[in-house]
Design brief:
Elements: E1 7-13, H1 18-29, E2 36-43, H2 49-55, E3 63-68, H3 73-83, E4 88-91, E5 97-98, H4 103-109, E6 115-123, E7 129-131, E8 149-152, H5 153-158, H6 171-181, E9 186-198, H7 210-223, H8 231-249, H9 256-267, H10 274-280, H11 288-298, H12 302-318
Parallel strand pairs: 1-2, 1-4, 2-3, 6-9
Antiparallel strand pairs: 4-8, 5-9, 6-7, 6-8
Length: 319
C-alpha cells in the first residue's frame, strides 16, 4: 500500500446525468488535499457524454478515469477497492457531492479508527438543500449506507469485507453489517454536514417490479446473519424490511385486498424475523419515523403506513 496516498475516493459512474457528474467532480477538485486520488470508474456507460465531462478534470493529477464492462455498482466498488492506493476509502455516488473539508488533517488525528462517519444533507434535482444533518447519533453509522463514511482499507482487507455483487438491492446494508460484525473502532462527527445526497423523483419504489421483490429475498437472507450483532445492524435490517413492504404497496397490478394479504404473509413469515424484531424494537437504533412505521405494521395498520409514506414522497417532489 502506498503510504504517501492517504485517501482514495471511489466514484462508480453509469450513465449519470452530466450536470450531476460535473457537480460531483467539481466538489472533489475544490479539495485542497494533495494526498488523495479520485477514481472515476465508468461501469460501461452507453453515453459518450460521460468521458466529455471527465476530460475537463483530468488535467488535475489526482483524477483517474477507468472504464470497465457493466457489472453493477457492487462489483464496480470492489474494482475501485482493488485499484485504490490510499490507506483509506471514501465511496461517493456520482450524482451526489461533498462539501469542502480537510481530510488529511482529520485522518492524521483520528488514524486509529476503522470507520469515520459524517452527517449529510438531502438535496433535490436542482441541488437545493431540502434538509441538513439528516443523520442523528442513533443512525449515523447506519442503517445501511456507505456514503458519508471513511473506511480504513486495511480493516476491510483483513476482515475480507467487500460488496456482494450478487445483490441488486440493499448491498450497502449488507456491507455495513459485515463491517459491524468485525467490531470496528468507530467515531462519529454528527454535527459535520459533509455529504450531499440527491433525492430522486424516480425512486425505485414508485414502480413495482415483482422480479425486484424476489431479489430482496437474497438480501434479507444475507442480513439475518448479522441481526444479533448490535442495535445498529438490527436497525439496518428494520429499514430494509420497511422498504420491502413499501415496494409491495406500490404493486399497481395487485388488488387492494391482495396487497393487505401479501403484507400480512410477509410479516408472519418466520424467515423474515419480524416477530423477533418487533420484540426488540424499543432497543433498536431507529429514527422516530421508522419506529412509528414499524408500530403501524405491528398493529396491522398497513395502509396508514402507506399513506403517510406517500404524503412524504409527494412533499419531496414538490420541493
Amino acid at each position: 500500500m502506498n503510504n504517501n496516498m492517504l485517501l482514495s475516493f471511489v466514484i462508480p459512474v453509469y450513465n449519470t446525468p452530466t450536470k450531476y457528474l460535473d457537480k460531483c467532480l467539481k466538489s472533489l477538485k475544490e479539495l485542497k488535499n494533495e494526498k488523495v486520488e479520485f477514481l472515476i470508474i465508468d461501469d460501461g456507460s452507453t453515453s459518450d457524454k460521460i468521458i466529455d465531462v471527465v476530460r475537463t478534470f483530468l488535467d488535475d493529477k489526482r483524477f483517474f478515469y477507468l472504464k470497465k464492462e457493466n457489472s453493477g455498482v457492487s462489483d464496480t466498488r470492489n474494482f475501485g477497492l482493488k485499484k485504490s492506493r490510499g490507506n483509506y476509502l471514501f465511496f461517493l455516488d456520482s450524482d451526489d457531492y461533498i462539501n469542502d473539508f480537510d481530510f488529511e488533517r482529520i485522518l492524521e488525528i483520528y488514524n486509529s479508527y476503522d470507520i469515520i462517519s459524517f452527517n449529510a444533507s438531502l438535496i433535490n434535482h436542482k441541488s437545493k438543500k431540502i434538509k441538513k444533518n439528516i443523520l442523528n447519533s442513533k443512525k449515523i453509522c447506519g442503517p445501511g449506507v456507505v456514503w458519508g463514511k471513511i473506511f480504513k482499507k486495511d480493516f476491510l482487507l483483513i476482515n475480507n469485507i467487500s460488496f456482494d455483487k450478487n445483490l441488486k438491492y440493499g448491498e450497502d446494508s449488507v456491507f455495513i453489517c459485515k463491517c459491524l460484525s468485525a467490531n470496528p473502532q468507530l467515531i462519529n462527527f454528527e454535527k459535520h454536514d459533509l455529504y450531499n445526497y440527491r433525492v430522486s423523483n424516480n425512486h425505485t419504489t414508485t414502480n413495482y417490479n415483482m422480479n425486484a421483490f424476489y431479489d430482496f429475498d437474497k438480501t434479507q437472507k444475507a442480513m439475518v446473519d448479522f441481526v444479533d450483532i448490535n442495535s445498529i445492524a438490527q436497525g439496518a435490517l428494520c429499514t430494509f424490511y420497511r422498504y420491502i413492504l413499501k415496494i409491495s404497496f406500490y404493486n399497481n397490478k395487485c388488488h387492494i385486498k391482495n396487497k393487505r394479504k401479501m403484507i400480512y404473509n410477509i410479516i408472519n413469515d418466520d424467515s423474515y424475523m419480524f416477530k423477533d424484531l418487533f420484540s426488540r424494537l424499543p432497543n433498536i437504533r431507529l429514527s422516530l419515523y421508522n419506529k412509528v412505521q414499524f408500530y403501524l405494521l405491528r398493529h396491522h395498520l398497513y395502509f396508514l403506513m402507506y399513506y403517510i409514506d406517500k404524503m412524504i414522497c409527494k412533499l419531496f417532489k414538490k420541493i
